[in-house]
Design brief:
The chain is 64% helix and 1% strand. It contains 20 helices and two strands. Helix 11 (239-263) crosses helix 12 (265-277), helix 14 (303-343) runs antiparallel to helix 15 (348-362) and helix 15 runs antiparallel to helix 16. The N and C termini lie close together (7 Å). This is DUF2029 domain-containing protein.
Length: 470
C-alpha cells in the first residue's frame, strides 16, 4: 500500500508568503482593536457592586449603551461566581433551566469560563480576566490570517465586529482553531499528517462551539482528492486518507468529552439538551422568529390561542431548522464535488465557508457574535469586497440596533426606529448569506496555492520511485 506521503511529496503548497512587516502591522492593529473591544464592554462593568459581585450599572445601561456581554451576564446563574468546576454536578430541568455548575456551551468553553473566573470576585474582574485569557487567541488568528492573506487580514484586525464581539462571548478560541486548521494545511508536512493535525484542531473547535466540526467533512474530501496537488483523472480516491481525517476528529472529540461524560453525565448532557430545548424567540435574531413566526402566531385574541400558535411554531422550527441546515451542508459538499471533478482539487475551505453560511442562515439561533466566525472566510476567499462591506453594514445594523431595541422595549418607549434597524440586520444578513453561500462555494483562495501542474507532470510525480516507496 502506498503511503499517505505520496499525495504531497514534491507537490506541497508553498505556504504563507506575506511579508513580516505586513504581519506585524496586522497583529499590532488587532491588539489595539481588542483593547477598544474590551473598553467598550467595560463600560458596563464599573463600581459600585452588589454583594454577589454584579455591577449595579450593568442592568441599567447594558442595552441602551450597547455594552452588554454574555461574559459579564453569565457571572451569575451558572455557579461561575462560586468557582464551581463546570458540568460535574449540574443538570437541566424539564423546562430547560440549567442547574448546578452546567453552562450551555461545549466542555472546553466551560473550562475557559471557569479559568477566567478563578481570580475574579466581581463581574468586572471576570470580564477583565476573561478578556486577558481570550485576547491571545484573537492575536493568533490575526497572525495566521496575516501570514495567509496579507493586507486582507486587516478586515479581521480593524473591522467593527472585533470591537463589538471580541469579548461578547467566548468566540476567539474557536475562531483560532478554524483558522489554525487552514494554516496547518499550508505547511510542508505530508498531506495526511497535516490533515490529521488540522482535523484535531477542528475537533477542538467542536468542543468549544461546535461549528468547526462541520469542516472535517470537506477536509476529508480534500485529502481523498489528493490535496492541493489534485487528483489525476482515472486514479482512485485516497479513501484511507479521508477516513484518517474523520477518525482523528472523532477520537479527539471523544477523548475531550469522555472525562466529563463519565464524571458528570447529567451536567455534560445538559449543555447539549439546553441548545436543543432553546426556542426561536426575540433573543435569537433568526429568520425563523422574524419571518415564519408571524404565520403561526396570528390569532392572539386569547392566551390559549396564542400559546397554541407559539407551540406549533416552535415544533416546526425544531424539525425544519436542523433539516434545512443539513440540506445546506449537503448542497455545499455537492458543489465542492462538482468543482473537484472539473479542477481535480476539492475546495475544502470554500465549501467550509458555504456550510457556515447555511448554518448561520438556517439555524434557529443567530447570535450577533457569530459574525466573528464568518470574517476569516471573507479574508481567506477571493470574494467581492462589495459583498463584504454590505455584510458589515447589515451586521452593524443588527449588532447595535438589537440592543437599542431591547432598551426601548424595556423603557416602554416607541421602538419603531430601533425595530427598523433590527429588521435591516436580520433580512440584510439573510439575503447576503444566501449570496455568500454560492459565492464562497465557487471562490478561489487569497493565499498562494501551488502552481498547477499538468496532468502528465502530476502522473509522473506519483509514479516515480520516490513517491511509491512504502
Amino acid at each position: 500500500m502506498q503511503s499517505g506521503g505520496q499525495w504531497s511529496r514534491g507537490l506541497r503548497p508553498r505556504g504563507p508568503r506575506t511579508s513580516t512587516t505586513t504581519t506585524i502591522v496586522v497583529v499590532t492593529l488587532c491588539a489595539f482593536t481588542l483593547l477598544l473591544g474590551y473598553l467598550n464592554k467595560a463600560r458596563c462593568a464599573v463600581a459600585p457592586f452588589l454583594e454577589n459581585g454584579r455591577s449595579t450599572v450593568f442592568d441599567a445601561v447594558k442595552d441602551s449603551s450597547v455594552c452588554y456581554s454574555d461574559i459579564q451576564f453569565l457571572w451569575l446563574g451558572r455557579d461561575i461566581d462560586n468557582h464551581v468546576f463546570p458540568y460535574l454536578d449540574g443538570a437541566i430541568t424539564s423546562n430547560g433551566v440549567l442547574t448546578g455548575g452546567t453552562v450551555e456551551y461545549p466542555v472546553l468553553s466551560g473550562v475557559l469560563m471557569w479559568i477566567g473566573a478563578i481570580p475574579a470576585h466581581t463581574d468586572a474582574e471576570f470580564l477583565l480576566y476573561s478578556a486577558l485569557l481570550l485576547a491571545p487567541f484573537g492575536l493568533l488568528t490575526a497572525w495566521m490570517l496575516g501570514r495567509l492573506a496579507g493586507k486582507a487580514a486587516l478586515l479581521w484586525s480593524v473591522g467593527p465586529p472585533l470591537v463589538l464581539y471580541a469579548f461578547h462571548n467566548w468566540e476567539l478560541p474557536v475562531v483560532a482553531t478554524a483558522v489554525g486548521a487552514v494554516f496547518v494545511m499550508t505547511s510542508r508536512m505530508p498531506l495526511r499528517a497535516k490533515a490529521i493535525v488540522a482535523a484535531v484542531l477542528l475537533a477542538i473547535g467542536f468542543c468549544l462551539k461546535l461549528y468547526p466540526g462541520a469542516f472535517v467533512l470537506p477536509l476529508a474530501a480534500f485529502v481523498a482528492y489528493g490535496g492541493a496537488a489534485g487528483r489525476v483523472a482515472g486514479t482512485k480516491l485516497d479513501i484511507r486518507g479521508g477516513l484518517s481525517v474523520l477518525g482523528a476528529a472523532t477520537a479527539t472529540v471523544v477523548a475531550i468529552n469522555a472525562p466529563f461524560a463519565i464524571l458528570g453525565y447529567e451536567g455534560w448532557r445538559a449543555s447539549f439538551a439546553f441548545q436543543t430545548l432553546r426556542q426561536a424567540d426575540i433573543t435569537t435574531n433568526s429568520i425563523w422568529y422574524w419571518g415564519l413566526r408571524q404565520l403561526y402566531v396570528t390569532d392572539a385574541t386569547t392566551p390559549e390561542s396564542y400559546e397554541r400558535g407559539e407551540a406549533a411554531f416552535q415544533d416546526m422550527v425544531d424539525i425544519a431548522s436542523p433539516l434545512l441546515v443539513f440540506t445546506a451542508f449537503a448542497v455545499a459538499l455537492w458543489i465542492g464535488a462538482r468543482r473537484a471533478k472539473a479542477e481535480h482539487v476539492y475546495p475544502w475551505v470554500a465549501v467550509s465557508g458555504s456550510m457556515l453560511c447555511g448554518f448561520l442562515l438556517l439555524h434557529k439561533v443567530h447570535s450577533p457574535q457569530y459574525t466573528l466566525w464568518l470574517i476569516p472566510f471573507f479574508v481567506l476567499l477571493r470574494v467581492p469586497w462589495a459583498l463584504v462591506v454590505a455584510y458589515l453594514v447589515a451586521d452593524l445594523s443588527m449588532g447595535i440596533g438589537v440592543f437599542k431595541y431591547f432598551a426601548a422595549l424595556a423603557q416602554g418607549s416607541d421602538a419603531g426606529t430601533e425595530l427598523f434597524f433590527v429588521e435591516v440586520g436580520v433580512w440584510g444578513r439573510a439575503l447576503l448569506l444566501v449570496v455568500a453561500f454560492f459565492v464562497f462555494a465557487r471562490a478561489g483562495l487569497r493565499y498562494d496555492d501551488p502552481p498547477r501542474k499538468s496532468v502528465s507532470e502530476r502522473r509522473d510525480a506519483r509514479t516515480s520511485p520516490a513517491s511509491t516507496a512504502s
